[in-house]
Amino acid sequence: MRPGPSLTVLVLTALCLGALTGAWGADRPLLLMELPTDGPVSPAVKAAYTALQPQYDIWWLKVHEPAQHDRPPAALVVGTGAKLLKETKLDFGEFVRSGGGLVFVATMSRDERDANNEFLRRFEVRIGPIQGPGQELKLLPHAVTSDITDLPARTTRGAFVADALEPIALLDGSPVAVAGTVGKGRVVVLAQPLVAMDDASRAPGSPQARLLAQAIAWAAGQGLAPPNGGIGAGQAATEPAAAADLTQKAVVDLPETEPWQGVVGVLGRQLGAVGLPVEPLRYEKDTHTLAEVLQGRPALVVLGSHRDFDEAETAALADYVSFGGSLLALGFDDGAKSPAKRVSALNRALGEFGISFTLGRPAGQGVLKHHPITEGMGQPGRVGAGGAVWAFAAWPLATVGEEVVASAHEFREGRIVVLDASTLLPPGPKEQPNSSEWFQGLLVNAVRWLTGK
Description:
Layout (H helix, E strand, L loop, with lengths): L6 H18 L5 E4 L8 H11 L4 E4 L14 E5 L12 H6 L3 E6 L3 H11 L4 E4 L8 E3 L19 E4 L3 E6 L2 E9 L2 E7 L15 H13 L27 E7 L6 H14 L4 E3 L9 H4 L4 E7 L6 H12 L3 E6 L7 H12 L4 E7 L2 E5 L12 E3 L2 E6 L3 E6 L2 E9 L2 E7 L15 H16 L2
Parallel strand pairs: 1-2, 1-3, 3-4, 4-10, 11-12, 11-13, 13-14, 14-21
Antiparallel strand pairs: 5-7, 6-8, 8-9, 9-10, 15-18, 16-17, 16-19, 19-20, 20-21
Helix pairs in contact: 1-8, 1-9, 2-5, 6-10
């Protein structure tokens, strides 16, 4: 597996997310999160993230140094042995006692138990042995567990011993979730198996995601999280909530140079297939920019990694997506001079949403991932070398090895799809992979999902 995005990309992402806070409104409560975005917990994490976005600004501890925040967070949401927490300068105990909220999703494995206990000790909680085989789960009355039914019992290697917090979930009589106040703040500690899932397609609206979202909202002092009313990648492919405000056209910001012409041709045919007229953006500095055309509220914006985007454009794009717009971003090594520089420019725009595109992905066998966009599609076959998508919380559509070549994102009221554009083109005469027809079909489905067509 190749390493993740460079430190430069992460810093740019942090700065862009900070800028977006000002655009969206600094009066929204701020959450700092550090939870897994892959593995059995990730579906509930992503679904909770989607459900909470309309009410909160959400930053990730991986890229935001707590000491640099210009306003205090309402809650911290952390877990997995608190390894990253050792690298921060924040006094978590004092943060909670002074009125902050904390949600800790604890791995219960023996190899991380010591690290978890070291962290939890400041809240008078420790992990001890569990009594019984882990067959009967009982939720006790609390705001965190309100209206949650059918939460499955899963085997766990430990239970909580808490002097200052009360049990809110029992597995065979042993506490596997506790909550309460510490000083002026609120603390919720959940055993990781409570929010683990085997089927990612069931995450939106699931009891696991609701438990996590309500734990975060209660710890942040906001009471109950609003029910997840159909938001999320596992739901039917309906139009975005604000689609009625949008002009039914696609603004396409791609060049006419080779080999982008091939990508533009494929895109034009697929947009025509869904009946969406195309308006090319002929960028001119200060006169014809993305910020200007977004005032017309198009149903879809298509961006590629071919030019720089100025601050006014990235800010306008953030507002457009936040309030219901849809974005299709195409990363591409077009063979021109300095492709990495062009990708970095695209990443400055995608950084507004915690997303980045990287080059250098090797060829390999493609694997379809479940999502409304991929419903009814077969496997893509072998995929040529190209680029990959990285994000904090994304719904992969297709992967090669451990790399994501296409992904879907839900950002506040809007939707985003990011795609390696090289997958849309047929291979050269000496190249074996030929999955371009599959990815062209994926593109049609993606446009339908983005625009509600």
